[in-house]
Specification:
519 residues; Isoleucyl-tRNA Synthetase, Domain 1; six-stranded parallel sheet; four-stranded antiparallel sheet; elongated; RNA-binding; tRNAsynth_Ia_anticodon-bd; aminoacyl-trna synthetase; ligase; EC 6.1.1.10
RNA sequence: GGGGCGGUAGCUCAGCUGGUUAGAGCAGCGGACUCAUAAUCCGCCGGUCACGGGUUCGAACCCCGUCCGCCCUACCA
């Protein structure tokens, strides 16, 4: 059960130069559902998201567009990234930008401490640098170029030439933490989830870690290295620190102690930064490592991974404009086992929308509310004598409440939804079996009719509470149609079946109307 | 080269440390019902569990090998 303890959960901060696609929205939605669920269970919850705004790529794009990098970042944050949160209905508690003083100042504070404590040294680095990747590439990462770059070695990811750079760099002695990291993975098997992601990380660290170059002097769009302002901090080193600068690191010890450590939800492509580099940085600074790092899978479109660099992404609005934000949230979290890759297709989305949301849940709500209006004049009925069938519904309400909460505690979002859906299906079956419309034809069956409708009504309310994190809009509409008091998101989800019934139902517009033509 | 993950009904996927006739959802087919968003409920159809060996009383699950897909990592150059 929830005990009011701290639950701090983060998304990665997104690189503002990218265009938001459904992969970004997927990460946001998954994290938001975990946060909403914990919040609704009474945990001291905090959800953080934000944007990563430094680095050479942004500087170059801004210059090409004739504006300062700060102006460029401002523009993208307001035109693309904040709207994304609205599009998929994210209830984040904070939004951090790496260009904010609260971040930059404390990145410097963190770095200075590592420097003072001997974790940083001066070195020389030479290598092939890919501007697109913001990192030096190994030879193996290079492939022969084609087309206009024929004859040159190009980055395998961006298919653009790399640059041979040599610079004085400051290095973080990450190699010194190899053993401590392995011990961490050993002692806390769930530190990296899922299992497949953990295996990758462990085998990587077992090969031994190199020290990490953490500064750049070839451009200046970044956080200044405090003891050498001719260098700026490497963008990843800078970015990772958002997780602590956003909750008071260095300035508000009370807040920091209350929130940290966090659960990090990330795409598996950036797992290593979060499961290796980041804990090593924290160890060096004498801070707690995260509670856990969960690497979710990729969305596959036509069997291929969506790529942020190659713009094969689908915009979230394409989906929400037709199906709504609730459907977006439901679809990606129920259809994909959280942690695995998942296939997206319009056909599958449409099929699941109609089968599960429209015909399953939406229609269930509609038939129950309508019958109470028609047979009870809208007045919420109460139970008389309970049959086994009635008791089975009540028992199931508790079962799925417990099962879904347990699943959420394992980050098994899809399992939580599947558990709740057992109640949706059971209630549809219950109505078919009990046939309240038949009972209504004979006044002698009045008590039984009211009992059946009361049981169904109660189950529907439990669904509203349980589905609130996933379908916040629909759940709120349903809650109000049920005539229940307060806001649905304020109802304790870990005991959803104990909600307080209302006295009168109100008309309910279709929660998930059928959608006839899909592009 | 080393390593990881995966290859299960038309589609998307479950199948924990091996144990009776391999499961679900969707799609398809048939029936019941009418409160409801032409919705719901029931039943049926449907698989040589990538392939070849092996271990075992018994393997989708363990071992060896092969093929295919994706990913991580190295190196020769």
């Amino acid at each position: 059960m929830a005990d009011g303890s701290s639950f701090y959960v983060t998304t990665p901060i997104f690189y503002v130069n990218d265009v938001p696609h459904i992969g970004h929205a997927y990460t946001e939605v998954a994290t938001d559902v975990l946060a909403r669920w914990h919040r609704q269970a009474g945990d001291d919850t905090w959800m953080l998201t934000g944007t990563d705004e430094h680095g050479q790529k942004i500087l170059r794009t801004a210059t090409a567009n004739g504006v300062t990098p700060q102006e460029w970042a401002d523009r993208l944050v307001s035109s693309a990234w904040l709207p994304l949160l609205q599009t998929v209905n994210i209830a984040n508690d904070d939004f951090i930008r790496t260009t904010e003083p609260r971040h930059e100042e404390n990145v410097q504070r963190f770095l200075q401490k590592l420097y003072d404590d001997g974790h940083i040294y001066t070195g020389e680095y030479e290598g092939h640098y890919c501007v697109g990747c913001e990192e030096y590439k190994q030879d193996a990462d290079l492939v022969p170029g084609t087309g206009e770059y024929a004859g040159q070695e190009v980055c395998a990811i961006h298919s653009k030439p790399v640059e041979l750079l040599q610079e004085k760099n400051y290095f973080f002695r990450m190699s010194a933490f190899t053993q401590r990291l392995l011990t961490l993975y050993e002692e806390r098997p769930d530190f990296v989830q899922p299992e497949s992601a953990r295996n990758e990380v462990v085998s990587f660290v077992r090969q031994g870690l190199d020290d990490l170059s953490i500064s750049r002097s070839t451009f200046d769009w970044g956080v200044k290295v405090p003891w050498d302002d001719s260098h700026v901090v490497y963008v990843w080193f800078d970015a990772l620190l958002n997780y602590i600068t956003a909750v008071g690191y260095g300035v508000d010890e009370e807040e920091f102690a209350r929130r940290w450590p966090a659960h990090h939800i990330v795409g598996k492509d950036i797992l290593r930064f979060h499961a290796v580099i980041w804990p090593a940085m924290l160890m060096a600074a004498g801070l707690d490592v995260p509670r856990g790092v969960f690497g979710h899978g990729w969305l596959l479109v036509g069997g291929e991974k969506m790529s942020k660099s190659k713009l094969t992404g689908i915009m979230p609005e394409h989906i929400t404009d037709t199906f709504g934000s609730d459907a977006f949230r439901y679809y990606f979290l129920s259809a994909i086992s959280f942690g695995s890759d998942g296939s997206f297709s319009w056909e599958d989305l449409s099929a699941r929308y109609h089968a599960e949301l429209a015909n399953g849940f939406g229609n269930l709500a509609s038939r129950i509310i309508t019958m109470i209006e028609r047979y009870c004049d809208g007045s919420v009925p109460s139970v008389a004598v309970l049959t086994d069938a009635d008791a089975a519904i009540s028992a199931l309400e508790k079962t799925v409440t417990d099962a879904s909460w347990q699943a959420i505690n394992r980050c098994a979002i899809h399992e939580a939804i599947a558990a709740v859906w057992e109640l949706v299906n059971a209630l549809n079956g219950y109505l078919t079996t009990e046939q309240p419309w038949m009972l209504a034809k004979n006044p002698e069956n009045r008590a039984r009719l009211e009992t059946v409708l009361a049981v169904a009504y109660h189950g529907l309310g439990t669904l509203a509470v349980l589905l609130s994190p996933i379908l916040p809009t629909a759940a709120a509409k349903l809650w109000s149609a049920l005539g229940a008091a307060g806001l649905v998101q304020e109802q304790r989800i870990d005991r959803a079946y104990q909600w307080s019934v209302g006295t009168r139902v109100a008309q309910l517009a279709g929660l998930f109307p059928r959608i006839e033509a899909v592009e």
